[in-house]
Amino acid sequence: MSNDEKKVNLLGLSPKKMADFFVEMGEKPFRAQQLLKWIHQVGLEDFDDMSNVSKVMREKLKEVACVEYPEIIYHKVSKDGTQKWLMKIPGGSSIETVYIPEGGRGTLCVSSQIGCALDCSFCSTGKQGFNRDLSAAEIIGQVYVAAKSFDKPGEKRERKITNVVMMGMGEPLLNFDNVVDAMDLMMNDHSYGLSKRRVTLSTSGVVPNLYKLAEVSDVSLAVSLHAPNDALRDQLVPINKKYPIKELLAACDHYMGSLPDRRKLTVEYTMMDQVNDEVEHAEQLAKLLKNTPCKINLIPFNPFPNSGYSRPSNNRVYKFRDYLHNQGYIVTIRSTRGDDIDAACGQLVGQVEDRTRRSARYIELHEVSAAENSQAESK
Questions:
Q1: Could you say which of 68, 96, 171, 268 is catalytic?
Q2: Which of 33, 64, 248, 344 has its CA at a distance of 20 to 30 angstroms from the CA of residue 11?
Q3: Cα torsion for 126, 130, 132, 135, to the nearest 10°?
Protein backbone atom coordinates (compact mmCIF):
# COMPACT_ATOMS: atom_id res chain seq x y z
CA MET A 1 0.00 0.00 0.00
CA SER A 2 1.20 3.48 -0.81
CA ASN A 3 1.58 5.96 2.01
CA ASP A 4 0.16 9.39 1.20
CA GLU A 5 1.48 11.53 4.03
CA LYS A 6 -0.91 14.35 3.16
CA LYS A 7 -3.93 12.24 4.00
CA VAL A 8 -5.24 11.42 7.48
CA ASN A 9 -5.02 7.72 8.29
CA LEU A 10 -8.43 7.03 9.82
CA LEU A 11 -7.31 3.64 11.13
CA GLY A 12 -5.57 5.19 14.15
CA LEU A 13 -8.14 7.82 15.11
CA SER A 14 -9.70 7.20 18.52
CA PRO A 15 -13.52 7.53 18.66
CA LYS A 16 -13.21 11.11 19.91
CA LYS A 17 -10.62 12.06 17.30
CA MET A 18 -12.73 10.47 14.57
CA ALA A 19 -15.74 12.57 15.65
CA ASP A 20 -13.54 15.70 15.71
CA PHE A 21 -12.30 14.86 12.22
CA PHE A 22 -15.82 14.88 10.80
CA VAL A 23 -16.85 18.02 12.70
CA GLU A 24 -13.84 19.80 11.17
CA MET A 25 -15.11 18.66 7.76
CA GLY A 26 -18.47 20.28 8.54
CA GLU A 27 -20.17 16.91 9.03
CA LYS A 28 -22.25 15.45 11.86
CA PRO A 29 -20.39 13.49 14.57
CA PHE A 30 -22.45 10.34 13.84
CA ARG A 31 -20.34 9.86 10.72
CA ALA A 32 -17.58 8.74 13.08
CA GLN A 33 -19.63 5.74 14.20
CA GLN A 34 -20.28 4.78 10.58
CA LEU A 35 -16.59 4.84 9.69
CA LEU A 36 -15.51 3.06 12.87
CA LYS A 37 -17.88 0.19 12.09
CA TRP A 38 -16.79 -0.10 8.46
CA ILE A 39 -13.10 -0.01 9.28
CA HIS A 40 -12.85 -2.03 12.48
CA GLN A 41 -15.92 -4.27 12.52
CA VAL A 42 -16.16 -5.04 8.80
CA GLY A 43 -12.51 -4.59 7.85
CA LEU A 44 -12.86 -2.22 4.90
CA GLU A 45 -10.28 0.27 3.69
CA ASP A 46 -11.95 1.27 0.41
CA PHE A 47 -14.41 4.14 0.95
CA ASP A 48 -16.35 3.15 -2.20
CA ASP A 49 -17.43 -0.08 -0.45
CA MET A 50 -19.04 1.77 2.48
CA SER A 51 -22.62 1.54 1.29
CA ASN A 52 -24.40 3.74 3.86
CA VAL A 53 -22.00 6.65 3.25
CA SER A 54 -23.18 9.04 0.54
CA LYS A 55 -21.27 9.21 -2.73
CA VAL A 56 -20.44 12.87 -2.09
CA MET A 57 -18.99 12.01 1.32
CA ARG A 58 -17.03 9.08 -0.11
CA GLU A 59 -15.44 11.38 -2.68
CA LYS A 60 -14.54 13.92 0.01
CA LEU A 61 -12.96 11.18 2.13
CA LYS A 62 -10.87 9.92 -0.76
CA GLU A 63 -9.36 13.40 -1.12
CA VAL A 64 -8.31 13.87 2.51
CA ALA A 65 -8.20 10.46 4.20
CA CYS A 66 -7.07 6.87 3.85
CA VAL A 67 -7.09 3.59 5.77
CA GLU A 68 -3.59 2.12 5.87
CA TYR A 69 -2.32 -0.72 8.02
CA PRO A 70 1.14 -2.32 8.46
CA GLU A 71 2.45 -4.43 5.59
CA ILE A 72 2.57 -8.15 6.35
CA ILE A 73 6.03 -9.62 5.66
CA TYR A 74 5.09 -13.11 6.75
CA HIS A 75 2.45 -14.98 8.71
CA LYS A 76 3.38 -18.22 10.52
CA VAL A 77 1.14 -20.75 12.24
CA SER A 78 2.50 -22.98 15.02
CA LYS A 79 1.62 -26.65 15.44
CA ASP A 80 -0.33 -25.65 18.59
CA GLY A 81 -2.44 -23.06 16.71
CA THR A 82 -0.47 -20.00 17.80
CA GLN A 83 0.01 -17.50 14.98
CA LYS A 84 2.67 -14.86 14.45
CA TRP A 85 2.80 -11.93 12.05
CA LEU A 86 5.92 -10.02 11.11
CA MET A 87 4.85 -6.57 9.90
CA LYS A 88 6.97 -3.98 8.11
CA ILE A 89 6.90 -0.47 9.50
CA PRO A 90 7.90 2.68 7.54
CA GLY A 91 11.60 3.30 8.09
CA GLY A 92 12.74 -0.27 7.45
CA SER A 93 12.16 -1.90 10.83
CA SER A 94 9.49 -4.48 11.64
CA ILE A 95 7.37 -5.64 14.57
CA GLU A 96 5.87 -8.94 15.66
CA THR A 97 2.33 -9.72 16.79
CA VAL A 98 1.13 -13.04 18.22
CA TYR A 99 -2.32 -14.69 18.44
CA ILE A 100 -2.81 -17.44 21.04
CA PRO A 101 -5.99 -19.57 20.89
CA GLU A 102 -6.95 -21.50 24.01
CA GLY A 103 -10.38 -23.06 24.44
CA GLY A 104 -12.96 -20.39 23.66
CA ARG A 105 -10.45 -17.60 24.13
CA GLY A 106 -8.26 -15.93 21.51
CA THR A 107 -5.60 -13.61 22.91
CA LEU A 108 -3.70 -11.17 20.70
CA CYS A 109 -0.31 -9.97 21.99
CA VAL A 110 0.26 -6.49 20.54
CA SER A 111 3.47 -4.45 20.22
CA SER A 112 3.65 -0.77 21.17
CA GLN A 113 7.18 0.14 20.02
CA ILE A 114 9.74 -0.93 17.45
CA GLY A 115 12.15 -2.68 19.77
CA CYS A 116 12.47 -1.63 23.40
CA ALA A 117 14.74 0.75 25.29
CA LEU A 118 14.48 -0.90 28.71
CA ASP A 119 16.96 -3.70 28.00
CA CYS A 120 15.66 -6.25 30.51
CA SER A 121 18.41 -8.85 30.71
CA PHE A 122 16.23 -11.89 29.92
CA CYS A 123 14.19 -10.44 27.02
CA SER A 124 15.26 -10.87 23.41
CA THR A 125 13.25 -7.82 22.29
CA GLY A 126 15.41 -5.51 24.40
CA LYS A 127 18.57 -7.00 22.89
CA GLN A 128 17.49 -5.66 19.49
CA GLY A 129 17.68 -2.05 20.65
CA PHE A 130 15.07 0.65 20.12
CA ASN A 131 13.94 2.50 17.00
CA ARG A 132 10.77 4.49 17.73
CA ASP A 133 7.25 4.51 19.15
CA LEU A 134 4.48 3.05 17.04
CA SER A 135 1.67 5.35 15.96
CA ALA A 136 -1.87 4.61 17.11
CA ALA A 137 -2.59 3.34 13.57
CA GLU A 138 0.38 0.96 13.74
CA ILE A 139 -0.78 -0.37 17.12
CA ILE A 140 -4.45 -0.88 16.26
CA GLY A 141 -3.32 -1.98 12.79
CA GLN A 142 -2.04 -5.19 14.38
CA VAL A 143 -5.54 -5.93 15.68
CA TYR A 144 -6.98 -5.00 12.28
CA VAL A 145 -4.61 -7.36 10.44
CA ALA A 146 -5.25 -10.26 12.83
CA ALA A 147 -9.04 -9.84 12.79
CA LYS A 148 -9.04 -9.56 8.99
CA SER A 149 -7.04 -12.79 8.66
CA PHE A 150 -9.99 -14.76 10.04
CA ASP A 151 -12.54 -13.26 7.60
CA LYS A 152 -14.26 -15.58 5.13
CA PRO A 153 -15.66 -14.07 1.89
CA GLY A 154 -19.40 -13.56 2.07
CA GLU A 155 -19.65 -14.54 5.75
CA LYS A 156 -20.22 -12.42 8.83
CA ARG A 157 -17.03 -11.69 10.75
CA GLU A 158 -16.46 -13.99 13.71
CA ARG A 159 -15.00 -12.60 16.89
CA LYS A 160 -11.86 -14.69 17.11
CA ILE A 161 -9.99 -12.09 19.17
CA THR A 162 -11.53 -12.06 22.64
CA ASN A 163 -8.61 -10.55 24.55
CA VAL A 164 -5.79 -8.13 23.78
CA VAL A 165 -2.64 -7.82 25.86
CA MET A 166 -0.18 -4.97 25.42
CA MET A 167 2.70 -7.36 26.06
CA GLY A 168 4.46 -7.45 22.70
CA MET A 169 7.55 -5.48 21.71
CA GLY A 170 8.12 -2.31 23.71
CA GLU A 171 7.05 -0.64 26.96
CA PRO A 172 3.45 0.62 26.49
CA LEU A 173 3.67 3.38 29.09
CA LEU A 174 6.57 4.99 27.23
CA ASN A 175 4.26 5.44 24.22
CA PHE A 176 1.41 6.71 26.35
CA ASP A 177 -0.90 8.71 24.08
CA ASN A 178 -0.79 6.34 21.11
CA VAL A 179 -1.36 3.29 23.32
CA VAL A 180 -4.33 4.92 25.07
CA ASP A 181 -5.91 5.88 21.73
CA ALA A 182 -5.46 2.33 20.43
CA MET A 183 -6.92 0.79 23.60
CA ASP A 184 -9.91 3.16 23.33
CA LEU A 185 -10.56 1.71 19.88
CA MET A 186 -10.25 -1.84 21.18
CA MET A 187 -12.94 -1.18 23.79
CA ASN A 188 -15.30 1.02 21.75
CA ASP A 189 -18.65 -0.60 20.90
CA HIS A 190 -18.43 0.63 17.30
CA SER A 191 -14.93 -0.81 16.85
CA TYR A 192 -13.81 -4.07 18.50
CA GLY A 193 -16.12 -3.92 21.52
CA LEU A 194 -13.76 -5.63 23.97
CA SER A 195 -14.48 -5.46 27.69
CA LYS A 196 -12.14 -3.41 29.88
CA ARG A 197 -11.42 -6.68 31.67
CA ARG A 198 -10.21 -8.19 28.38
CA VAL A 199 -7.73 -5.47 27.45
CA THR A 200 -4.57 -5.64 29.56
CA LEU A 201 -1.63 -3.27 29.66
CA SER A 202 1.64 -4.76 30.91
CA THR A 203 4.33 -2.45 32.24
CA SER A 204 7.86 -2.89 33.56
CA GLY A 205 7.24 0.02 35.89
CA VAL A 206 7.11 3.54 34.45
CA VAL A 207 5.68 4.88 37.69
CA PRO A 208 4.66 8.46 36.71
CA ASN A 209 2.69 7.19 33.74
CA LEU A 210 0.91 4.60 35.88
CA TYR A 211 -0.59 7.46 37.87
CA LYS A 212 -1.40 9.24 34.62
CA LEU A 213 -3.09 6.10 33.24
CA ALA A 214 -5.49 6.06 36.19
CA GLU A 215 -6.86 9.40 34.99
CA VAL A 216 -7.73 8.29 31.45
CA SER A 217 -8.28 4.52 31.33
CA ASP A 218 -9.69 1.54 33.20
CA VAL A 219 -8.07 -1.35 31.34
CA SER A 220 -6.70 -4.29 33.30
CA LEU A 221 -3.13 -4.03 34.54
CA ALA A 222 -0.19 -6.41 34.65
CA VAL A 223 3.23 -5.61 36.08
CA SER A 224 6.42 -7.32 34.97
CA LEU A 225 8.02 -7.85 38.37
CA HIS A 226 10.37 -10.84 37.87
CA ALA A 227 12.16 -10.39 41.22
CA PRO A 228 11.11 -10.11 44.89
CA ASN A 229 13.77 -7.58 45.96
CA ASP A 230 15.42 -4.47 44.54
CA ALA A 231 18.94 -5.87 44.36
CA LEU A 232 17.91 -8.68 42.02
CA ARG A 233 15.39 -6.61 40.08
CA ASP A 234 18.05 -3.95 39.43
CA GLN A 235 19.97 -6.64 37.53
CA LEU A 236 17.02 -8.10 35.63
CA VAL A 237 14.89 -4.99 34.99
CA PRO A 238 17.16 -1.89 34.86
CA ILE A 239 14.27 0.59 35.15
CA ASN A 240 13.99 -0.59 38.77
CA LYS A 241 17.03 1.58 39.58
CA LYS A 242 14.87 4.61 38.79
CA TYR A 243 11.55 3.33 40.12
CA PRO A 244 12.17 0.70 42.85
CA ILE A 245 9.66 -1.95 43.83
CA LYS A 246 8.07 -0.01 46.69
CA GLU A 247 7.25 2.93 44.40
CA LEU A 248 6.05 0.59 41.66
CA LEU A 249 3.65 -1.32 43.90
CA ALA A 250 2.31 1.93 45.38
CA ALA A 251 1.52 3.14 41.84
CA CYS A 252 -0.10 -0.21 40.99
CA ASP A 253 -2.21 -0.07 44.15
CA HIS A 254 -3.29 3.47 43.24
CA TYR A 255 -4.28 2.40 39.74
CA MET A 256 -6.22 -0.67 40.87
CA GLY A 257 -7.96 1.43 43.52
CA SER A 258 -9.08 3.88 40.83
CA LEU A 259 -11.01 1.22 38.91
CA PRO A 260 -14.81 1.20 39.26
CA ASP A 261 -14.91 -2.54 39.88
CA ARG A 262 -12.91 -5.07 41.89
CA ARG A 263 -10.08 -6.47 39.86
CA LYS A 264 -6.76 -7.98 40.82
CA LEU A 265 -3.37 -6.88 39.60
CA THR A 266 -1.57 -9.51 37.53
CA VAL A 267 2.03 -9.99 38.64
CA GLU A 268 4.23 -11.49 35.94
CA TYR A 269 7.28 -13.38 37.14
CA THR A 270 9.65 -14.91 34.59
CA MET A 271 11.54 -17.77 36.27
CA MET A 272 15.19 -18.36 35.39
CA ASP A 273 17.13 -21.36 36.63
CA GLN A 274 19.04 -20.61 39.85
CA VAL A 275 18.53 -16.87 39.40
CA ASN A 276 15.12 -16.04 40.88
CA ASP A 277 13.49 -19.46 41.31
CA GLU A 278 14.58 -20.50 44.81
CA VAL A 279 12.01 -21.12 47.54
CA GLU A 280 13.54 -18.20 49.43
CA HIS A 281 12.57 -15.98 46.48
CA ALA A 282 9.00 -17.30 46.76
CA GLU A 283 9.06 -16.46 50.48
CA GLN A 284 10.22 -12.92 49.73
CA LEU A 285 7.59 -12.55 47.00
CA ALA A 286 4.78 -13.69 49.31
CA LYS A 287 5.85 -11.17 51.94
CA LEU A 288 6.27 -8.39 49.37
CA LEU A 289 2.75 -8.80 47.92
CA LYS A 290 0.85 -9.46 51.14
CA ASN A 291 -0.99 -6.12 50.96
CA THR A 292 -1.51 -6.11 47.18
CA PRO A 293 -4.58 -8.01 45.90
CA CYS A 294 -3.13 -9.88 42.95
CA LYS A 295 -2.78 -13.07 40.96
CA ILE A 296 0.69 -14.31 40.11
CA ASN A 297 1.59 -15.59 36.66
CA LEU A 298 4.78 -17.67 36.66
CA ILE A 299 6.54 -17.75 33.29
CA PRO A 300 9.28 -20.35 32.85
CA PHE A 301 12.05 -18.66 30.86
CA ASN A 302 11.89 -19.18 27.09
CA PRO A 303 15.48 -19.55 25.86
CA PHE A 304 17.01 -17.52 23.03
CA PRO A 305 20.61 -17.50 21.76
CA ASN A 306 23.29 -15.95 24.01
CA SER A 307 20.81 -14.99 26.73
CA GLY A 308 22.96 -16.42 29.52
CA TYR A 309 19.86 -17.84 31.21
CA SER A 310 18.18 -21.23 31.16
CA ARG A 311 14.73 -22.59 31.89
CA PRO A 312 14.21 -23.98 35.41
CA SER A 313 13.15 -27.57 35.92
CA ASN A 314 9.47 -28.32 36.34
CA ASN A 315 10.24 -29.41 39.89
CA ARG A 316 11.63 -25.99 40.79
CA VAL A 317 8.68 -24.22 39.17
CA TYR A 318 6.16 -26.43 41.02
CA LYS A 319 7.89 -25.91 44.37
CA PHE A 320 7.80 -22.15 43.83
CA ARG A 321 4.12 -22.29 42.87
CA ASP A 322 3.18 -24.56 45.75
CA TYR A 323 4.76 -22.28 48.33
CA LEU A 324 2.77 -19.31 47.02
CA HIS A 325 -0.41 -21.40 46.89
CA ASN A 326 0.08 -22.34 50.51
CA GLN A 327 0.35 -18.65 51.36
CA GLY A 328 -3.08 -18.06 49.82
CA TYR A 329 -2.11 -16.64 46.42
CA ILE A 330 -3.78 -17.43 43.13
CA VAL A 331 -0.92 -18.72 40.96
CA THR A 332 -0.84 -19.88 37.36
CA ILE A 333 2.02 -21.24 35.30
CA ARG A 334 2.03 -19.87 31.79
CA SER A 335 2.26 -22.68 29.28
CA THR A 336 4.77 -22.23 26.47
CA ARG A 337 2.97 -21.56 23.20
CA GLY A 338 4.34 -21.03 19.71
CA ASP A 339 7.94 -21.82 20.59
CA ASP A 340 8.41 -23.56 17.24
CA ILE A 341 7.85 -20.20 15.51
CA ASP A 342 9.67 -18.13 18.17
CA ALA A 343 6.40 -16.65 19.39
CA ALA A 344 6.79 -17.47 23.09
CA CYS A 345 6.92 -14.80 25.80
CA GLY A 346 10.18 -12.82 25.63
CA GLN A 347 11.09 -14.08 22.16
CA LEU A 348 9.67 -11.30 19.98
CA VAL A 349 12.46 -9.51 18.15
CA GLY A 350 11.25 -8.17 14.80
CA GLN A 351 13.95 -6.34 12.85
CA VAL A 352 15.04 -3.23 14.66
CA GLU A 353 17.43 -0.48 13.63
CA ASP A 354 18.62 0.80 17.02
CA ARG A 355 18.52 4.60 17.02
CA THR A 356 18.41 5.38 20.71
CA ARG A 357 20.59 4.91 23.76
CA ARG A 358 19.02 2.47 26.16
CA SER A 359 16.85 2.86 29.27
CA ALA A 360 18.11 5.90 31.22
CA ARG A 361 18.49 8.34 28.34
CA TYR A 362 15.22 7.32 26.70
CA ILE A 363 13.21 7.68 29.90
CA GLU A 364 14.94 11.01 30.60
CA LEU A 365 13.82 12.34 27.21
CA HIS A 366 10.23 11.27 27.84
CA GLU A 367 10.21 12.90 31.28
CA VAL A 368 11.63 16.16 29.90
CA SER A 369 8.91 16.14 27.25
CA ALA A 370 6.19 15.45 29.83
CA ALA A 371 7.49 18.24 32.08
CA GLU A 372 7.52 20.72 29.18
CA ASN A 373 3.95 19.78 28.25
CA SER A 374 2.83 20.21 31.85
CA GLN A 375 4.45 23.65 32.08
CA ALA A 376 2.84 24.70 28.79
CA GLU A 377 -0.59 23.63 30.00
CA SER A 378 -0.22 25.56 33.27
CA LYS A 379 0.54 28.85 31.50
A1: 96
A2: 344
A3: -20
Q: What is the dihedral angle through the alpha carbons of 357, 363, 365, 371, rounded to the nearest 10 degrees?
A: 180
Active-site residue flag, 116: no
pLDDT along the chain (379 residues), means of 10: 74 97 93 97 95 94 96 90 91 88 92 90 77 95 96 83 94 98 98 97 97 98 98 96 98 97 96 97 98 96 83 96 98 74 50 51 51 50
**Torsion sign (Cα): 82, 196, 240, 227:** negative
Angle formed by the axes of helices 176-187 and 207-216, to 10°?
A: 40
Cβ contacts of 278 within 8 Å, gap of 6 or more: none
Print burial letters for 38-61: b (CB count within 10 Å at least 16), e (below 16).
Answer: bbbbebbbebeebeebeeebeebb
Q: Catalytic: which of 109, 116, 123, 345?
A: 345
- Going by the DSSP 8-state scheme, the letter that residue 351 receives in this structure is B
pTM of the model: 0.89
How many whole angstroms separate alpha carbon 337 and alpha carbon 216? 33
Shared fold status for 8-66 and 71-366: no
Fold (CATH) for 71-366: TIM Barrel (3.20.20)
- Of 197, 209, 217, 212, the residue nearest 263 (C-alpha): 197
Tell me the domain boundaries of the chain.
8-66, 71-366
In degrees and rounded to multiples of 5, residue 256 shows phi and psi of -65, -35
CATH code assigned to 8-66: 1.10.150.530
